[in-house]
Design brief:
- The protein is mostly helical.
- It folds into two domains: 77 residues, Endonuclease Iii, domain 2; 104 residues, Endonuclease III, domain 1.
- It is 64% helix and 0% strand.
- Helix 2 packs across helix 3, helix 5 packs across helix 6 and helix 6 crosses helix 7.
- It starts with a helix and ends with a helix.
Amino acid sequence: MQKSAFEIYRYLEKKNLLANSPKYWWPNAGTFEVLVGAILTQNTTWTNVEKSLKNLEGFLTLERFLMLREDELKERIRPSGFYNQKGPRLLQLANNVKTEFQSFDSFQQSVSRKWLLAQKGIGEESADAILCYGCFRAEMVIDSYTKRLFKEFGVVFKKYREYKAFVEQGMREHFSQDELFEVFAAFHGMIVEYNKRKRS
């Protein structure tokens, strides 16, 4: 029988999956680093992203990042794979943020999902990750882990937006608007941790 989003959330919550995680699960949530990480993690593991982020230490603010030459950036993000693609896209994104919003703080306050989806290399999952963990917005991130876990509970949809609506509508029945950002951040984090433990 199909479970509700709230039932799945409570099931995960009882497992105490985020005990050793940062406050909002994603490392350095609320910083420019989340934008970089959200692009780097495409088609690779977080372990590889961490290597790239370590190589970028000292450049993980919007202003400092824009000082990097493209060839230098590609070399630093090489561990994440697809660096010839991700490097130019990251620099273009950083330039567009600077041009459109002037600062990362302004970007956090004003960026829309529509704006992010119009950027090259940003799909729905990356956009929602940036909005949730980079901007503290109440947006649920759906990834392959989410679909795999939900299938165990009889929840299967064809489209990203259907999964997103299932979670967001289901959780709004149980939490206030002020609570939703932390709920969605934790929900996605618990799903990832649950899957990682299952595989290990």
